[in-house]
Amino acid sequence: METVSTEPLVGKGTPLPDYIDFLLSPDTPLDFHVNVGDPDLCPQERIGAVRWMLIARSKVLRVMLLQSKMMRHNKEMSITDMDPDTFKNFLMFLYGYDNTQSLQLEAAIALLCAAEKYDVGDLKSRLDMVITPQVTVDNVFAVLRKALVCEKMPQLWETVTEIIQYRTDDLFSHAQFPTVSPEVLLHIVQQESLSVPEIEVWRAALNWSTHQAQPVEGVITAENLRLTILPFLKHIRVCTMSTDHLVKEVQVTEILTPQESVEVSRTVAGKRESHSLSQISLDTEERGR
């Protein structure tokens, strides 16, 4: 997968205002510094900042820098949940310069996560408007990887949901699909509406599980597949599939236990038990399309 830079637009053909260049320059003798980056991944970068601007613009940093006895008189702090390039973009916006329109998608998403974490409301609203038009079926997984943040952005999440529900086949056939996180796959299969038949949901989950399962002595067994696909079985509506699909594509994998196969058969025949302990979906209502 192509790596998308999160660098700010310094030296990329878009000249910054003189005051931004001055404030971001490592030679500017600011009286407060932030050590930025996860030290477990790379050396931290020491970046000068206007302390009172951090306090004024971020509610979270205001509490950290004014109410914490440890931080109140310190002249530096550490931020490990942001990379240096994202922090510089963050500072630019706090200082009054909006370069968000020029950011690439993943850089904008990284900045959105920072805006959410440090509670900068106008930056969140701005990025909701900036990111939304950029989202397509080819890059929606980048948004879904940060779903806990992105789902709070109304316009953005509406667009993401529309892609999932109306471009499902394109998502399932995307080269990145087998590598998405379990959380992303779970979000997809939990949708009330998808634009594909339920057998395609099963095939996609099976494809994902085949790529994710841990082989035993080089062999992926039915047990391996079951352990991998199990968190999603409660959301794949096998009882809405045709008998042909159930027999030839679901039961043949031996992922379902014999008891679960019996429960599916009884449910399809209208003889579902009222108190089932099954780990699979016995929902007979077809998903919206």
From TrEMBL:
Sequence ranges assigned to domain BTB in this UniProt record: 30-95
PROSITE patterns, sorted: BTB
Transmembrane segments: none
Organism encoding this protein: Graphocephala atropunctata
Name of this protein: BTB domain-containing protein
Pfam families linked: BACK, BTB
